Amino acid sequence: MKKGITILGATGSIGISTLDVIKQHPHEFNVIALTANKQVKRMQELCIEWSPLYAVMADSDAATQLEQSLKQTGSSVKVLSGVAGLNLVASLSEVDMVMAAIVGSAGLLPTLAAVKTGKRILLANKEALVMSGKLFTDAVRQYGAKLLPIDSEHNAIFQCLFFDEAALPSKTPENLGINRILLTASGGPFRTYSIEQLHEVTPQQACAHPNWDMGQKISVDSATMMNKGLEVIEAHWLFSIPAKQIEVLLHPQSIIHSLVEYIDGSVLAQLGNPDMRTPIAHALLWPKRIKSGVPYLDLIKTAQLNFEAINFNRFPCLKLAYEALNSEGTATTILNAANEIAVEAFLQKTISFTSIPKVIETTLSQLNGRAASSIEIILEDDKQARELAQQIVNNS
Ligand code: NAD
Ligand code: MG
Known about the structure:
Order of helices and strands: EHEHEHEHEHEHEHHEHHHHEEEHHHHHH
Helix content: 40-55%
Radius of gyration: 20 Å
Number of strands: 11
Bound molecules: nicotinamide-adenine-dinucleotide, magnesium ion
Low-confidence stretches: none
């Protein structure tokens, strides 16, 4: 039987890579729904190619445009809009798995809708987990959903920890004998820049990642290393590992995607070419392996794997993320919201690259986090943090 899949964020970098893997396995998957924000033209092309049952545009004007242009082609795709449309296609009974690949906090509610209907969740949208932490992982257990990480580091850790289906939901570190998790980081495009040089960098430079081809927001996050900070928080929640046992290691080649050190001294790592189709293919039918289309790794050609310690002074965002995780509650919600505002302001050239951590730090210092005990509290603190961060941007 084919597996029904909804792809949230189908027009993005992860969405397109997912469709590329699915295309290689036409007998395994049935694309039920595709979603996007505003990219009408791209979505129209995808609808013609894939004929899903549903296409959802988060933006209602975009939905109207898509509906009109699809009508002219005689397409029978049903067009929906807004959060209600996203939630609906994430929870349809004919959907077995949901690729959560919306960027940012907009992905939280549809991903939770998929969790609450017990789907297999392929989680790329790390911001959703960073915002909601324990509430998210508790819901996964409560509703019997299966959570498979797509983020390459977390997918690597998952591969070094779990080998069979009985492993989900994740076990605690004590019964697996883990000493440390080592998250690798390429260091992004500015790894060798001095702090002075960082003041002048442009959005275009920040989005030109040396190893990965990604959306704009995660590319800027990689350049500030907030991406790695969000990933530390993500690892904490996915694998129930305390922050002090999660370390970040610079590895410029992005060949080792992360490592797990066990208490007996064994270290397991997952390696591969830096291409998101590998973690996507791994998670789609896990524990069954399928081809991804990624060229096999040539270690002779790679020749060198280098490692460096992190300098937290050069990457203040990473430090802020550890601090937010340690202070618990909605501090990570506030961190994520302020980061989204600051990154957007940098992309719009309203603030400089080095102002990004300043906006986040000021927001965190002016708002008190609290216990993240309900989705309402999380959404309220997210909204408040966005408003405050925007004010800080406007006054800077
Ligand atoms: P992207 O910008 O290329 O695509 C984002 C997708 O989300 C698009 O389809 C867009 O239409 C949709 N979207 C944007 N705003 C929306 C909104 N308000 N409502 C509904 N949909 C909206 O981003 P990406 O690089 O594919 O990243 C997606 C997620 O995956 C992010 O959370 C990112 O951190 C994570 N991720 C990406 C990569 C990568 O290699 N690209 C690697 C690891 C994790
Ligand atoms: Mg990653």
